[in-house]
Amino acid sequence: MSTTDLSALSGLELLRLVRDGRLGDTPSIGRLLGMRFDEVEHGRIVLSLDTRPDFANPLGTVHGGIAATMLDSALACAVHTTLPAGTGYTTLELKVNYIRPARTDGQTLTAEGTVIHAGRRTATAEGRVVDDQGRLIAHATTTCMILGPGR
């Protein structure tokens, strides 16, 4: 892997490098949970993970924080794909609705995030998490604050 100036990359370029495994195995929430970037397009991200017993809540199903983290990642990264080089962002708000529990036995959960609005100061996105049978687990909306260069 050659040395890449990450600040010179657009959000879309950066996330495609992540998807392709070209940035190495740096510590991240994605690595911790085993998230994979399946699709990276302008304004849209699809990521997935396989559940495991470590994700259990006291009732034995996947903790809601796993779905929330998947949604925060998918929605914010969808926003990131719309940003030029040197521009950052941060989540201002995340609203999650939980629909049904997910199992901890290795089923694949998939999150899709899509940008609704990409403005100069804020961006909004929506998304959903489904199980390996296509059943809705949770859905969410987010607002991100856009941070210009040097902020």
Automatic annotation (TrEMBL):
GO cellular component: cytosol
CDD domains xrefs: PaaI_thioesterase (cd03443)
Molecular function GO labels: 1,4-dihydroxy-2-naphthoyl-CoA thioesterase activity
Swiss-Prot/TrEMBL keywords: Hydrolase
Keyword Hydrolase: yes
Location of the Thioesterase domain: 60-137
InterPro entries: HotDog_dom_sf, PAAI_dom, Thioestr_dom
Classification via PANTHER family: 1,4-DIHYDROXY-2-NAPHTHOYL-COA THIOESTERASE 1, BLR5584 PROTEIN
Name of the featured protein: Thioesterase
